[in-house]
Amino acid sequence: MKKLFPLTLVGVLLLGACGGEENPEEENTGEDRGEEETTEEMTGEEATEEETTEDDSASATDEESAEADDESTEEPGTTETSSEDQPEDLTEAEIDEEELRSAYDIDQDKVDMVENATETDNTVDDVLKAPSEITSYIQDTSIIIEVTEGEEITDQSFQGITAEVDETDGELEVASDYFDENYEIIQPHGYGNSETDELFIYSETGWEDYSTQYGVEELIYGTYSNTHEIIEEMPDSLQVLEEGDYDILYYTGNDDVVHQLYQDTFQVEFTGADMDELELGFVAFINKESGDLESANLIASAPGQQNPEQILTIEIILNYQEYGIFDGNTEIKKPNPDDMGSTSEEGEDEGIEGSLE
Predict the structure, then answer these.
(1) Cα(168)–Cα(172) distance, rounded to whole angstroms?
(2) Which has the higher per-residue pLDDT, 65 or 116?
(3) pTM for the full model?
(4) How far is the C-alpha of 322 from the C-alpha of 130, rounded, in Å?
(5) Whole-angstrom distance, CA of residue 145 vs CA of residue 312
(6) Per-residue pLDDT tens over the stretch 233-258
(7) What ranges does the record list as Acidic residues composition bias (predicted)?
């Protein structure tokens, strides 16, 4: 399996709930999963070391050694560079990997913000825009389901959907595509328009008409309105924090109301897990200057009933950008009429399910 998320907020949120400290080794978990496709026997740390030594110095010690030997041993064309020059020497594959990390994941700066944030007297309404203030935007949803045992990831799945969204005047128009672990579009996903009562889902035979079976609000999970509703219904233990340029909404716990919100909004279901030990987490970042919600992470984790050493975690990452992009002459893309299929019969919504054997 290719690299997914080098760093997530699972450790920050759930360890915070348990009163523990974040283990630096947990950051290698993302590296482990990222190297699974090239070698399953190699640990994430070993894979990272091998990958790094092929391209550049991996530490300050290496850089100092390179500088010391520079005059006596370095030959023309050598690939050894300082960290300052390194970005110019990145191969195309490495550049893509750097873009992948920034596109998918909550970065280290924001993880640090959560750890260093301080509580404020602000309320949610003070820092979060109402849906009536939101028009159009781009929204990405990444869903990770993984089973871990100790530090080993024993099972993992990923789904990504990127969507063009317009919620102007209470209407909803959405055009969405699936993307893979490399943030590359795989195929169209769906199109819906509440004003015209249209809903199309893309399949192997082309676009199929589901207009009479579903509403456009069922097309994607992460509309701004949906996320705002989740936040509004969170318990009083939801904290309003601040750090740097961001207001941060933060929650950890196991409240039934939060579990129900996750189930109702995302159809999150656990199979074979000990629900008495369920831990839930939520964190959202709001840009202070613009007031825009930039991201929200929702996490649910529980040990296995048969094997408590196994931990099942479902993480939903919602990212928002380019607010107002479809307010002018730019239109949301429509399905190609040449790819239209027939009206489809109603199917079963599978939702998001994580299971332990």
Answers:
(1) 7
(2) 116
(3) 0.68
(4) 17
(5) 7
(6) 999 999 999 999 999 999 999 999 99
(7) 22-74, 82-99, 345-357
Residue 350, token pair as written in the block: 């599978």
Decide: 339 and 206 in contact? Cβ < 8 Å.
yes
CA 241 to chain centre: 21
Q: Is 344 left (phi over 0), alpha (psi -120 to 50) or beta?
A: beta
Mean model confidence pLDDT for the chain? 74
Spatial separation of the C-alpha atoms in residues 312 and 149, rounded to whole Å = 9
Q: How many residues make up the chain in this entry?
A: 357
Distances from the Cα of 280 to the Cαs of 114, 273, 306, in angstroms?
Answer: 16, 14, 21
Q: Which two tokens stand for residue 180?
A: 């893979």
Q: Following DSSP, what letter does each residue of 58-116 receive, concatenated? A: -SHHHHHHHHHTHHHH--TT-----TTTGGGG--HHHHHHHHHHHHHS--HHHHHHHHH
Distance CA 160, CA 179 (A): 5
Q: What are phi and psi of 33, to 5 degrees?
A: -70, -30
Using CA atoms, how far apart are residues 101 and 107, in angstroms rounded to an integer?
8
DSSP SS3 for 262? helix
- Span between the terminal Cα atoms of the chain, in Å: 21
